[in-house]
Amino acid sequence: MNFRYPIFLDLKGKRCLVTGEGSEIPAKIRGLITAAANVVYVNPRAAAEIEELAARGEIRWERRDFQVRDLDSCFLVITDRADNSDVFRLAEEHGVLCNAVDDPEHCRFSFGSVHRQGDLTIAISTNGWAPAMAVRLRERLQREIGPEYAVFVELLKEARGEIAGRISDFTARRQLWYKIVDSDVLSMLRAGQQEAAAKKIRDLIDEAGR
């Protein structure tokens, strides 16, 4: 295993195939839906949750066994079958990224243990060797990085255009970003003072723009 290259993917509209029926398959499908992927589930049977997703039109369910043509125009495939070797081999031949659940020898990528707060995403990997450690680290981050970070990112997103427009010098712009992030804005947000936090960011921008 060598899952050492961290990456975040934009899957919007990408055809993503899921096959097999292990216990983690519903969660994998939910994750793809959240990422706005075009999800196709190929398997003769489906868990109740997957049936509901198909009935609501959130995924397409092909009630049959996997076939090689399912990989056509596919961006990635997630498989959880008794034997994932054929799916992996065919995915490699088609240039399709493959993840076989709990079967690292048949994976081209792995899933980290993920903590999310809004647009803030933190993924932890131990290269597949110690997933329990990754889970414990994620749980620690969940306690330390709360919803105030999601609000902070949203405020920064709103400020990004103004900062780019008013501060043309790259070095000055970078210094401003760090000044904002290192300020007491997070403390204000933890205390529920969102308006004060937004004003603090505006004041720092005004100060840098003079």
Could you characterize what this model shows?
With 210 residues, the chain is an alpha/beta fold. The protein has two domains: 1-111, Rossmann fold (3-Layer(aba) Sandwich), CATH 3.40.50.720; 147-209. Helix content is 46%, strand content 16%. It contains eight helices and seven strands, in the order βαβαββαβββααααα. It has a five-stranded parallel β-sheet, sandwiched between helices. A two-stranded antiparallel sheet has the order 6-7. The protein is elongated, with a radius of gyration of 22 Å. The relative contact order is 0.10. The model has no long low-confidence stretch (mean pLDDT 97).
SSE class: alpha/beta
Strand content: 15-25%
Radius of gyration: 22 Å
Distance between the termini: 53 Å
SSE pattern, N- to C-terminal: EHEHEEHEEEHHHHH
The major sheet is characterized as: 5 strands, parallel
Helix fraction by DSSP (H/I, runs of at least 4): 40-55%
**How many helix segments?**
8
Helix and strand layout, with pairings?
Elements: E1 15-20, H1 25-34, E2 38-42, H2 48-55, E3 60-62, E4 76-80, H3 85-94, E5 97-100, E6 113-117, E7 120-124, H4 131-144, H5 147-166, H6 170-181, H7 185-190, H8 194-209
Parallel strand pairs: 1-2, 1-4, 2-3, 4-5
Antiparallel strand pairs: 6-7
Key attributes of the depicted protein:
single chain; 210 residues; alpha/beta; Rossmann fold; 2 domains; five-stranded parallel β-sheet; two-stranded antiparallel ribbon; 8 helices
Give a short summary of the structure:
This protein is 46% helix and 16% strand. The chain has 210 residues and is α/β, with parallel strands linked by helices.
